[in-house]
Design a protein that fits this description.
By secondary structure, the protein is of the alpha/beta class. Belongs to the NAD(P)-dependent epimerase/dehydratase family.
């Protein structure tokens, strides 16, 4: 089976390509915005280096992408490409236009291929404490990022393709990039003196390990028969963001102080509580999160042990 992973040089894309590569009988085709091989997501075998493609969905021409897809002939496409920061053009190009272009190209070239697209919990907006968000919950994004991700989801679910959107909640684990809260906190702890300054950490989020996300994407790509249009992928538990800072501090044996009077994210401040109902993913994919937040944070710290301070 041939699976094309778009965004394979990014955090979740690297984990997904590695997870797929470990499955017998699966050939992984990797594509990213920048040329060159994707680095391994964690310890273990690197993704198959035999195919390395440059694809930028935000700028891609639908006809040109269709020609490339017809050439490759994938049985499934996993779209991990996207953007979490940048200006309005970048956010909407990567998260809204990109999935729409991909769907148009797939319809023209390989309409029978399974499409797995990574969405975001930001599409939901604020949750109500004590009430996990199921896939049929109204979507009320509070900012441009969530709105752009929702537009991408609607492009996929309305495409008529054999497609599923995995609505990923808050990833935390090895390889976390510096623009993510866990990655930024880990970097701060590595160069910290006695104080690490962060924003308010009182909000509640549902954290999921990137390796568990990769397992869900793999299961969705390889699953026989049709799947629901949207599936939540999360840890299934609301945790205060402070748990991430304290968990990383324990892993780092940090004896200093975490100061919450620094600058925080306005987007995060607008959403005080989120928790996912992950029962639909369990039923459709046989998937459940395997790793605890504590395990994910310990592995994040250990994986970056050789990083420069």
């Amino acid at each position: 089976m041939r699976v094309l992973v778009l965004g394979a040089t990014g955090w979740l894309g690297r984990h997904t390509a590695e997870h797929l590569h470990a499955r017998p009988g699966v050939q992984v085709l990797r594509a990213g915005r920048a040329p060159g091989p994707a680095a391994p997501a964690a310890s273990g075998p690197a993704p198959d280096p035999t195919v390395d493609l440059t694809v930028d969905l935000a700028a891609a021409d639908p006809a040109g992408l269709a020609a490339l897809l017809a050439d490759l002939g994938p049985d499934a496409v996993v779209n991990c490409a996207g953007a979490v920061g940048g200006d309005a053009l970048h956010l909407t190009g990567a998260n809204a236009r990109g999935p729409a272009v991909l769907c148009a190209a797939l319809r023209a070239a390989v309409p029978g291929a399974r499409l797995v697209h990574l969405g975001s919990a930001a599409e939901y907006g604020p949750g109500e404490p004590g009430h996990p968000l199921a896939e049929d919950h109204p979507t009320r994004p509070v900012g441009l990022y969530g709105a752009a991700k929702l537009a991408g989801t609607l492009a996929v679910t309305g495409s008529g393709l054999d497609a599923v959107v995995l609505r990923v909640f808050n990833p935390a684990g090895p390889g976390a990039p510096p623009f993510s809260l866990p990655g930024r906190l880990a970097a701060e702890l590595r160069r910290a003196g006695g104080v690490v300054r962060v924003g308010d950490l009182s909000a509640y989020r549902d954290f999921v390990d990137p390796r568990d996300v990769a397992a869900a994407a793999t299961a969705a790509a390889l699953a026989p028969g049709p799947l629901p249009g949207v599936l939540n992928i999360a840890g299934g538990r609301a945790r205060p963001v402070r748990d991430v800072a304290e968990g990383l501090a324990r892993a780092a044996a940090f004896r200093g102080r975490i100061d919450e009077k620094g600058d925080g994210s306005a987007r995060s401040a607008a959403v005080a509580w989120q928790q996912a109902d992950v029962s639909a993913a369990a039923g459709a994919l046989g998937w459940r999160p395997r790793r605890t937040l504590e395990e994910s944070l310990a592995d994040l710290w250990t994986a970056g042990a050789g990083a420069a301070p």
